[in-house]
Amino acid sequence: MIAIVRLRGEIKTRHKIEDTFRIMGMKKVYSAAVLDDNPVNMGMVKKLNDFAAWGEANEETIRAIGNVKGLKAPKGGLKSKKLHYPRGNLGYCGAKINDLIKKMI
Q1: Which of 25, 31, 37, 43 is most buried, most CB within 10 Å of its CB?
Q2: Domain-by-domain residue ranges, the chain?
Q3: Which residues of 50-82 are buried (b: 16+ CB within 10 A; e: fewer)?
Q4: Is pLDDT above 90 for 38?
């Protein structure tokens, strides 16, 4: 399973990117979704690589996302919303996505 967290807003965002976020049910900043690891979903996730953080979610994180109605900004802040992992928070984070989601709950 893959967890994806939206980190950037919709100002100066192309319509195709916004449509992809809407399909995934992520309309607001700091919203999250859990997806199956299949080629269709991976295509959508790679399209959003410059606007969201994503990685492999463990069972605890999947349950936490299901129980929370809306996420908030992470405690302690983010490294950067403009740089990719490891210098920032965007893009593929691997298992570190679980730590980011824990900070947001």
Answers
A1: 31
A2: 2-104
A3: ebbbbbbbeeebeebbeeeeebeebeeeeeeee
A4: yes
The encoded tokens of residue 83 equal 């740089």
The domain 2-104 is placed in CATH, from the list 3.40.1190.20, 3.50.50.60, 3.30.2130.10, 3.30.1390.20, at: 3.30.1390.20
Quote the Cα angle for 99-10-74, to 5°: 20
pLDDT digits (tens, 9 = 90+) for 44-75: 999 999 999 999 999 998 988 888 877 888 88
Using 50, 70 and 90 to split pLDDT, how confident is the model at 6? very high
pLDDT for 67 equals 80
Instruction: Specify the length of the chain in residues.
Output: 105
Report the C-alpha gap between 42 and 51 in whole angstroms: 15
- Residue 39 in this model has a pLDDT that exceeds 90: yes
